[in-house]
Protein 1
Amino acid sequence: MLACKGKHVLILDDLWDKLSPEEVGIPEPSNGSKLLVTTRLLDVCHYLDCREVRVPTLSKPDAWRLFLAKIGQDVFNHLDLLPFVKSVAEECAGLPLAIVTIASSMKGARNLHEWRNALHELKRHVKSVNVIEEKVFQQLQFSY
């Protein structure tokens, strides 16, 4: 169907393994169409012969602002929580998806034990194939 259509953009988001576009029915773009792939794994880019564009993680100040925007500014009314809130935010490692997901899951939590437990869960080690996957899985596993 894509081969018959005019120009198009096909986005494959968050690939975790090598993929043969032809095997899954994606024709090689020849009519000006584009294939956009997002991945954390450089091997996937190399396998697909993609042009690599690196997207950096958020800076610490930007990550903190995003975390606060999702969790709510009223957390400053609970000064005993702030060290734990900051530590949880730092565990997100500047990854926007992790920040949004974890902050949203902790929104409204104003109990010291909840924050202490959240920090403990985020610091737990998760077995994985590589360090990047481990960090991402660890953060997302916590949120779910």
Note: Strands lie at 9-15, 34-39.
Protein 2
Amino acid sequence: MKKDMKNKILVLTLMIISMIIMLSSTNWFSMWMSVEINLISFITFLKINSNKLMMEKCMIYFLTQSLGSMIFLTSILISKLSVISFNTLNLTLFMSMMLKLGMSPFHIWMPEMMNKLSWNKMIIAITLQKINPMMIMSMMTHKSTLILMLITLSTITGAIMGINQTSMTKIMAFSSINHLGWMTLCMMNLNNLWTKYLLIYSMITTLFCITLNSMNMFYINQMFLNKMIISKILMSILMLNMAGLPPMPGFLIKWMTIESMLSLNNQIIPLVMTMSSIIILLFYMRMMSIIMLNSTITPKWKLQMMSNKKMKLLITMNLCTPLLMLI
């Protein structure tokens, strides 16, 4: 157990080092190197306490990320020969990062890789693993019509494909695809709004995954919290936050994104993305209805309950998240 903990700390340290390298990079090659360090460290993290199913997920992740890195590096080498134009290079690099992040239409691998992943590994996959590719994307100009269409497609795909899912890990994967579209849209004004969005999203998602891990929940039909009023309130606050309902931070950051797009005289894309958020709200409200309305059902499995101190801490953290927007 102690050895596994030491390995996890070492791997997380390598991930942080790769992010520092990305922040201090001045050329494409050092950026590529930081992405590769991050890839190897995350695969090592997945292999800790792994089984046969986890090895398959490691292979899916490795092949997909290697393909994205190969496209990224090949585009840079070709650009040095002045064979392709700047706009073509920009589009190719942008799509290679979309493949790494799992954005639509390159999203097929992401839900399958994250399905039945442990919540601790899920937190790393949908928060820290987004930082390096999004830093590279923020350094490009992306106001072309094709890129705007791909961003809109990502939000629609994440919303629609998450409706009929019963696995919480798959729902989180499709919700991540939807939020990736919003974060990429924040880059349209060439400001740092996407960093605020990523920070708020990471905090909300981490709290949600920690709570589900503590309650040992992986499927929607496990959301029967019998005679646990505090747990129901906690889960309801978390889901309202994830769904982006006012006055939660998830709503306020989307509001800021829509305002930034309206300043560019673009009304159609914010309208479509707002409609996709309503669909996201649909399947989170479905989970809330199961929690709040099924109070008399006695589950046939034994859930791992949290201690009162841990429950109070999680509730306090969730109630304090709206204060982040004031800061």
Note: The chain has one domain: 2-326.
Protein 3
Amino acid sequence: MQWSDYTNGERIKILRGKDVTQAALAEMTGLSVVTIQKAEQDKQLSLNTLMKIANALGVDTSVMVGQQAPRRAMAQSDRTMMRTLSQTVHDTAAGLLPDSIAMDEAAAVRHGIDRCWNLYWKGHYTEAGALVVPILPQAAAYLREQPVGGQSCAWGLMADAYRLAAYVANLMGARDLAYSAIGHAQTAADRSGDELQPALVASGRAWVYLRDARLGDALSLAEKAAVDIEPRFSRATMEQLTVYGSHINFAAVVASRRGDKDLVKSYLSQSNATGARMGGEHRARGTLFGPMTADTQAVGIAVALGQTGKALDLIRGIPEDRLSALTEAARNRYAMDKAMAQADARLWDASLDTLEKALVEAPVWARHQALPGVIVQKVGRASTARVRRVSALIGVRPGVDSGFAPATSRTAL
């Protein structure tokens, strides 16, 4: 069933979801519960009421009237965060800062940005996006107070904050906002005087391109970003190795999506060499890399290339007790790649075991991912009874891969 096939009242009820009661929505809008009930029953819905409800639920009125479908997998809290984040990005870029904004020192802004990255790599994307909202104007206020010629640090903070906004928007499927935020990040990075900043932003833009199916552009930009910061191993700092390793590994990911096996092989060789040089996992500048990251991401690359046997061989060589070195998001992504490889090999029960464990341990993270739904559809062909239980965890129906499902329960495909 398509989004436009629902009535206005049904759309309100779907968007409200299980997290927001009619009474709560009434309080959010300033309307009475009776008015909300009538609106959901299609008995009475004025334009003023519709606009108040749309604003409270964090969607455009075009979504409310069925002209545009909502983004799947987004709960009401996600939509509210994204709307506020969008306003903040555009207002900050236009120089429109809140009257109440107080300038924090650079260390305080940096601490806030680091907290955002920690939330992001834990898979808490809504919380990370919500924290970017106050950080962006704080960074802008700090920039405004710096003397001409002494703004390099402030521009670096602005680049980081905008890049975070772009990452959250891109993951949430808000492509226009992702393009806008990464563009502002690029402007700030170019003024930061930091040799790593432009490459970090360029890699972020390549990721936006990748999710927008612009594979050629993504590969060109990812390659350039990696080459621009390639260090000399003999004197490279751990920060340089971390940033370079994550960049060259991402270039391998993009090349795998294009099916370029030779280029993938070249990049993975450099990725493995960098990881070996580092000796362990490290985080720096919103990136993370190390030998375990290189090994686990190689599994996803093999899956993308259709090399199921190779992916399973790589999985067998990765000790489970070493996965704790990864961030939560990285561990979860590896679990999805592992489950997909097992599904491709028709190891249905093993795939469901891997998938179910990840879904139970990280339900919030999984809600924003595409692979769980894809894996369920693939394994569903086996018609196993367990598929129904795993499907319930992500809100998809076994064997069904089309049509609209409520945004609060459907994986972002």
Note: Confidence is low (pLDDT under 50) at residues 399-413.
Protein 4
Amino acid sequence: MKRWYLYPFSLGYHMVTGIRNTMYDLGIFKSTKFKTPIINVGNLSVGGSGKSPMVMYLAKSLSKYYRTGVLSRGYGRLTKGYDVTNYDSNYKTVGDEAMQLFERFKNRFVIAVSEERVPGAKKVIDDMDLDVLILDDAMQHRAIKAGFNILMTDFNDPYFKDHLLPAGDLRESRAGANRADIIMVSKCPDELTEETKQYYISRIRPTKSQKVFFSSIGYDENVYGTRDKMLPDNNLNYYDILLITGIANPKPLLTHLAKFSQRVKHLKFRDHHNFSDADIKNIVAEYKKLGEYKLILTTEKDYVRLKTFDYLRDLVYYWPINVVIDRKEEFNQVIMNYVNRK
């Protein structure tokens, strides 16, 4: 969203972030390096750009061969400090994104949270004897120097068309993309032409050492509920649907859901919304207004919060997503080359 009337304030923001980045570039501000391979998945903008599905993809792939860990800030949790996600954790203690990872993968890889990335990275690497660590959303957290950076940018709102906060949604200037090893254009339409790809590459203008990839959202064949029970017949067209979202950009989900059902009422909340009792009462009231055959549908991230409310536990279903990468084998090889080289 562009807010041109705030552009004068963006000039001040540009000066502050520019000075900060220069201090890191010159070594005046300390940036800690690690011997263990660290892959950062980040972006330049505020809001959803597909980081979480990419973190999932990398962690799942790398954990087949290496002792793998994921470190996030634990945004939205009610606690502070370092913690490792386990069966006693919930979204209030580790955040919804860490809990989402654990709900899907359990102990397949280590999932830790720490708002202080440097001590958090040291502790999880040493305590868990990791071979590789994935950082979630640390592009601007330059106190830690990742060995490999993946910059995510939304196909429908690419960073090269955006502007700095508060006039636009960029956390730092477009020049920050120069720190990336891979620039991933995410949430692309299913039918993406070579002409369109070349247009994006021409606007990105990658350096000789950078690679540009394209990816889309892939929805699971099944819709799941409590204890991984699947929606009967998986036929969404059969139901009146109350869609609950607390994510930055629900548009892709709405577009995909429209292919299956036109009987959808959408209740939209802000990203990482901490649902209150009043919210739940409103959700229940809206649910009761629906027809005889009805269900509550949400995202995988929102599900870990909504299912904690007793009344909703057996009513709410979620639709898992995965990232689908164009030239996947080449992408995988680039990642493996980095990890093996380290």
Note: The chain has a mean pLDDT of 94.
